[in-house]
Amino acid sequence: MRRISLYFLGFTLIALSFGTPAWAQDKPADKATTAASVAPASGPRAEFLEEIAYYEQRYTRLAEAMPAEKYSWRPGEGVRSVGEVYAHIVGANYGAARALGTAPPASLDFKSIMALSGDKPKLIQALKDSFAHFRGAIIALHDAEADKPQKMFGRQTTLRGSFIVITGHFGEHLGQSIAYARTNGIVPPWTEEAQQQQKPADKPKQ
Questions:
Q1: Is 62:181 a contact under the CB 8 Å cutoff?
Q2: How many CB atoms lie within 10 A of CB 87?
Q3: How many whole angstroms separate alpha carbon 83 and alpha carbon 1?
Q4: Which residue blocks in 67-158 are alpha helix, DSSP H?
Q5: Is 118 exposed, middle or buried (0-12, 13-18, 19+ CB in 10 A)?
Q6: Which of 22, 59, 61, 198 has the largest CB neighbor count within 10 A?
Q7: Which residues contact residue 206 at a Cβ distance below 8 angstroms, ignoring those fewer than 6 apart?
Q8: Could you tell me which residues are beta bridge partners of residue 158?
Q9: Residue 37: what pLDDT?
Q10: Dihedral angle sign, alpha carbons of residues 170, 21, 53, 88
Q11: Are 1 and 9 in contact (CB under 8 A)?
């Protein structure tokens, strides 16, 4: 019980360090919305946006492949459940965007995000919304500020460095989610597709 309590305390402290983001039906902050139609074609932001697209696709497809009844599954006491990992990514997307200068929607609250961890349809939509908001936050930045000092997830780095830190965070929890899926008999959709493509074509019988 103590480990679980410490986990939720830790999530609350992270939420407070990022500020109090928004949720539900609200639109992303004006800064992200205004810039959303001018995605860069090259440079640090363009490269990072490709990474975001990669991870968004994998998180959402894996979340869709996991049965709803498995969202409460966890490998042990004090460890995040399937749904809590996805909810953590939702919260981190809004928190990282705020740290980069784009405020979350006005009604979002980290507690409400974690409360979605057992609701597959709502959590998947929340995941998609958070990635859309985060993309807008990246587009709103300027490549010329790539070396500007930036703090991210408690680490002092540069704006460019923060992109690396965030990518590492995405990778860590995607690996965790893949392990959860496989433990529960779910093959990641992209792996299943690759396996199907590698199968030799059936030869006609002689």
A1: yes
A2: 27
A3: 19
A4: 82-99, 110-114, 120-139
A5: middle
A6: 59
A7: none
A8: 149
A9: 54
A10: positive
A11: no
Q: How far apart are CA 156 and CA 163, in angstroms?
A: 12
Identify the pLDDT of residue 9: 41
Mean pLDDT confidence for 96-121: 92
Query: Which element (helix H / strand E) includes 159?
Result: helix 159-183
pLDDT interval class at 196 (50, 70, 90): confident
CATH code assigned to 42-189: 1.20.120.450
Mind giving me the DSSP string for 24-67?
A: TTPPPPHHHHHHTT---SSSHHHHHHHHHHHHHHHHHHHHHHS-
Structure tokens at 99: 């740290």
Find the angle CA(64)-CA(70)-CA(73) to the nearest 5 degrees.
130
